[in-house]
Specification:
The chain is of the alpha/beta class and about 325 residues long. The chain folds into two domains: about 5-175, 3-Layer(aba) Sandwich (Peroxisomal Thiolase, Chain A, domain 1), CATH 3.40.47.10; about 180-330, Peroxisomal Thiolase, Chain A, domain 1, CATH 3.40.47. The protein is about 35% helix and about 25% strand. The chain is built from ten helices and 13 strands. The strands form four sheets. It has a five-stranded mixed sheet with strand order 1-7-6-4-5, sandwiched between helices. β12 and β13 (about 320-330) form a beta hairpin. The protein is globular. The model has no long low-confidence stretch (mean pLDDT about 95). Bound molecules: coenzyme A. Coenzyme A binds near residues 40, 222 and 229.
Length: about 325
């Protein structure tokens, strides 16, 4: 099976802040329990940014680690894509701050807003540029400070989210077998209001009223999103397998977006995938949105769970609604 896009993940890196927010902390903040959170979501703790930390500072650290791993210097980068919905500033793009901090050349740098599907949207974008020879080395980093937009008075959503960053360097493949076998991107704007920040945008700019209504924070209709996520994750895995002609048993590791352990387990059970081939770290980080797949990819590599030649499938879905998948031969 020849890859559609001949690319290699030359290096990976991740970063999560030191500060922990545990289920026990939530028991002191809202009407909830460790038992409820654990059984409904699988989450035990999340990492959250402290003062002075931001999406850019986390993205910078994850990027440096990925570049070290790839043995690549800042001046060798040709493009920076940052997946985020919680940017360093609202203007300009976080990727531009990163370019300067990394000491890269005057290369193009832009942000891509696809929420939890962000890492895979970025990877697909980078893969096309690299495959067609437009750029040789692309830094992809997905980073989110969800704690900055989480409403800690809303017990139905606040227990889910954490902060972090995952980065990769995408370069041309030296081995013809290596690359992106297939990938899917999709969106359904009919579901745009299911997860959104209603205030602070161009329709309803910041005002006293926005502050008073707490509409600068994320709103989520959890039950609706849950239903969508359960069916979409199964459908995405099925479609990606069908599109590639690869059998489920041939995949060395599945890396799903870490949104809720029940969503992941339900897809695995329905598709007959044993959980020992599914990467799970939601217990430690919660849902870090776009960062989750990048963080997982780096962790899995460092844990020796991904080797050269392995088939790895990544799937994600999120606000938008958006979804994406990537099947890679590493
Ligand atoms: N602690 C205790 N009880 C809670 C609670 C909390 N933190 N949050 C909600 N509840 C209560 C509700 O008030 C409700 O009580 P009621 O039955 O008396 O009305 C009950 O628990 C069930 O609420 P429900 O919203 O149906 O729970 P759920 O099983 O759907 O779990 C989520 C809630 C948010 C964990 C779940 O819907 C989910 O994971 N959704 C998807 C979210 C997601 O993945 N978002 C990001 C997409 S990338």
């Amino acid at each position: 099976m020849t890859p559609n896009l001949r690319i290699a993940i030359r290096g990976t890196g991740m970063f999560v802040p030191e500060r922990r927010l545990t289920n026990a902390d939530f028991e002191k903040m809202i009407d909830t329990s460790d038992e409820w959170i654990t059984t409904r979501t699988g989450i035990k703790e999340r990492r959250i940014v402290s003062e002075g930390e931001s999406t850019m500072t986390m993205a910078l650290e994850a990027s440096r680690r990925a570049m070290n791993d790839a043995k690549i210097q800042p001046e060798e980068l040709d493009l920076i894509i940052c997946g985020t919905v919680t940017p360093h500033f609202l203007l300009p793009a976080t990727a531009c701050f990163l370019q300067a901090e990394l000491g890269a050349g005057k290369i193009p740098a832009f942000d891509l807003a696809a929420a939890c599907s962000g890492f895979l949207y970025c990877l697909m974008t980078a893969a096309h540029f690299v495959h067609h020879g437009t750029y040789r080395n692309v830094l992809v980093v997905s980073a989110e400070s969800l704690s900055r937009i989480t409403d800690y008075q809303d017990r139905g959503s606040c227990i889910l989210f954490g902060d972090g960053a995952g980065a990769i360097v995408v370069s041309q493949a030296s081995n013809p077998e290596q690359g992106l076998i297939t990938g899917i991107m999709g969106a359904d704007g009919q579901g745009a209001s299911l997860i959104c920040i209603p205030g602070g945008g161009s329709l309803t700019p910041f005002s006293d009223q926005v502050l008073k209504d707490r509409n600068y924070l994320m709103r989520m209709q959890g039950r609706e999103v849950y239903k969508f996520a359960v069916s979409k994750m199964q459908e995405l895995i099925r479609q990606t397998l069908e599109q590639s002609g690869v059998r489920q048993e041939e995949i060395a590791l599945f890396i799903p977006h870490q949104s809720n352990l029940r969503i992941i387990e339900s897809a695995a059970t329905k598709l007959g995938i044993s959980m020992d081939r599914v990467w799970v770290n939601i217990d430690r980080y919660g849902n870090t949105s776009g960062a989750s797949v990048g963080i997982s990819l780096d962790e899995a590599r460092r844990a020796g769970r991904i080797r050269t030649g392995d088939l790895v499938m990544m799937v994600a879905f999120g606000a938008g609604l958006t979804w994406g998948s990537a099947l890679l031969r590493m």
